[in-house]
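Usage

Read records sequentially. Each one opens with the input sequence:
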Amino acid sequence: MFDEFVEHTAPSNHVHSSLPHVQYEGFEPSPYDDQVAGPDHAASVDAQLQSSFPADAPVFDLGRVQYTLPAPLVSLAVSSDVLAMALSSNLIILIELSHAEQVLQIPIPRKPTEMSIYKIFLDPSGRHLIITSYQGENWYLYRGWKKPKQLKSFNKSVIESVAWNKPALLSSSHSLSTKEFLFGTRGGGIFEAVLDAGEDLFKSQERYLQLLFSLPEKAPVTGIKFELIPQPEQRNALVIATTPSRIYQFTGTPDRRSDDGGRLFFSMFAVYRETAPKISELPGDLLYSELRFFTPNSDQALSLPKTLAWMTAPGIYHGTLNYALNSDDHVDSTQLLPYPPPTSPESLTSQPHPEIPTSILLTEFHFILLYRDRITGICTLNGKLTYEDVIPLRPNESVKGLAADPDNESRDVWQIYLAQGEFDTALRYAKTAIQRDKVLSAQAHAFFEEKRYFQAAQCYTQSSVSFEEVALKFLDVGERDALRSYLISRLERTRKTDLTARMMLATWLVEFYLSKCDELHDLCTSEVVTSDVENLQAERTILEEDLRHFFETYKANLDRNTVYELIQSHGRTDMLLFYATVIGDSERVIQHWILEEDWLKAIDTLNRQSDLELYYRFGPVLTQHAPKAMIDSWLKQSALNPIRLIPSLLHLQHLPCDLLVPNQAIRYLSHVVFEQHNTSSTIHNLLVTFHASSSSNDDAPLLRFLMTAPSDPLTGKPFYDLDYALRLCKKAGRIQPCVHIYSKMGLYENSVDLALQKGDLELAKINADMPEDDPQLRKKLWLKIARYVVQDKKDIKTAMQFLEDADLLKIEDILPFIPDFVVIDDFKEEIAHALEGYSAHIDDLKKEMDDATRTAESIKRDILELKNRFVTIDAGERCSVCAQLLLTRQSYIFPCQHTFHADCLIGLAKEYLPAHTLRRILTLQTELIKDVQKTGLGDLPVTTPSSEVRQPTRQRTLLSANFASPLQNGTKAAGSLSRNILSAGDRLRDLIIPDALASVVSAPGWIPGIGTAGAQKALNKDAEQQAEKLRAELEDVLASSCPLCESVVAGLDKPFVNDGEADMTWAL
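and closes with the structure output:
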């Protein structure tokens, strides 16, 4: 029974080869480690494939399906991963192969005695299933339904074959309609129908059914197939139907169908009611037949069948489908393959004629024939029997049908194509490297025998034919061009790690290229082939471009010395330069252009590379012959070290000078100094050297550099050596630069002397004004110039003009330089002008003196008026320090309205006065004490007035409290105080006695409210004047400013809390 056997590629239990058990542990080497697998690796892969599929193993094999059916199998169909089986118990079994454990059983509501299933038909999408029976009942089942529905309009028609609309079904995965399909019946009718699984109360599933054509012989339609052929202008349809002895072809334009489906083939078949279709007949007495098609990429909606096979009584009728629109016969290359005779001796004895198979199956390369007790396979390419196996049937079992999904059927196809000489097709089906190698080797030998040498070279490259054999074959026939092509391909396929092999191949190719170029060159120069010169020149140009491209591609696989020797042996200088440029050997290129004295090309090559050492190496020679271009090159390369370029620059000193062309060394050094900000003293001195040694007599460039040269920011001196520059300028006789250098060195006298020595008066004037901060030196320099003008130049008028240019010189400074015999008329005007200036100056001085006198008299008057100034105060005014009545003793009143007693003022003022002022106060204090003691006024009575009632007078002794002991002897006390002042400077404030000073400051005999009229008569007049002067000075010191206001100003920078004081007022 077919339900227990299925065709597949796994080895069966009774015919098999023992395979080793492989344990995959995750450490197997990857076959893709290298970019190009070597021969050893290819052989190992081929060995693995051959172990999986031994050469003597059959292409097909049988195996038993591990599934037990509840009833005998009647029919089977597979499509879109869905397996549908019909059993004799009217049970439909559906299995989705991706979930084989889920089996769906759907019964048909008919007893086996009432209805017997004949065939089932499953559409390409696996959603629609049609069931037909021997009794003519037909049922329809849609995926997901629990039970089928009877097709009542289809009754009394036994369906033999169905042609589904595959493009429409596969392109709409969610459609419930079957779209238009054709089916053939046992009575010879061809019908068109449309079924729809949608639920509609007003419509049944049978949306459309129409008889299109009835075969004239009323034979069963054993096979039917239609294809919609897309054409550029219109769509065409091809319908093929078969009976046991005939094959029909119907072609035409189908109707435009609606989305819900409708009449598609009605008008096309209507034409054949009057005309007969294309009919091919193979007579025989066979009552059944099968029509099979092979479709590449059958899972795609728009794929078309490629070949067909029709099982007939005489044999297998097969051919290739032709979809041309105007073709009369759409089956081309038709052949009839007779059935193979039995191979076993028993079968030959019992049945000498070939047995007709029960079923047939068409694959890409085989006809698979099913017999009562065996299965065979015939190759479609050569018609040979490639497979035969006996079906081990059990008792009461019979074969029903055939279905196959071959996997390895193309294993030996390459050998067939190889034997037929179809190498490209054989390569397409060669699976292993060994198979491909055999095909390529055979193809290469075939091309070589046909003298297609370039194609043979390409095939030899991909084959395992030895390198030596191939090279000798091409050399024997003189095909060096083909050999070159072979070497290039071989080089491309050689692994990058095979350095030696790649270098040998690349070097040999260089020799081939050069030899071919020489050959073409000789042919071009020959007179024999004058007519083909243009073609040969074009070929030579192409070959040279190939050689250049080869150098760029394989420069890493070439030895430069070997290649240099090869190129030089062929005399190809252009190729030598190109190869040197490609590999970055700029030194050789520059050397070549220098030998050729093509300096600009050498410099251009130098500019294109980045090695700075080459600038230093070739700088001298290139600078000597092409200075401007070389300097331009240096200016573009800022990374150069100017120190190392000095040897090249020195070559420019020996070149002939052209006044119209600037000095290139000066140009480069100026760029280095001013643009690159180089501070090397060597560079600066070299630039001075080139300026000084220039053949031009113009000192402006050198002087301009000396004036604008950058200086050291730390020392302020220029980076060039002043002494060296001075020696150069003196040697070259460049006066102005020497004068400027002298001034830079601060030797202004030397600069003026040198300027006067060379007679450059203006330059001397400029340098004479340079020492601006030294007037005496300036005057001295101008006197030098004046002496030079008067004594050497004898130019009195010019000397007189100096009086206007130099503000330091006067006429009397120049007169000593004028000789005695000179007539005064030459400078009479200047003398008169000078005298007039002096007279005007004297008048100005007189005016200033008169103004000063008037100012002094005005000040004296103001001083006198100040003595009479008064301030009105209240009788109860109090002292700002002690808060006692102010008028009780001598007091002072300030413009700020602060009032003080004399002793309070002295005590307050001594706290902020400076030390020198305090010393002066002590001196005055000592002098006044002496005067008081001499005049005997120490015991004068002093009275204090009251505001209302005069109080009794209170005697007050001068220094009675603080100077009791020291003042017994006046001289001794004064000496003691002087010593204290000198020895204890830090106790000055303690030595000042406010009470004593207050007493001596007051006028002798001063009585509040009365004055000093009576006492002044007793005083000595001279002593009084001296004391009055001392008191006036002391009052000036003490009462110059208000002490309260002055102390506030003086204490602005003092802290609120002094060091060492503990102030807790800020504590929280």
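Summary fields computed downstream for this record:
- The first strand starts at residue 5 and ends at 8.
- The two ends are 114 Å apart (CA to CA).
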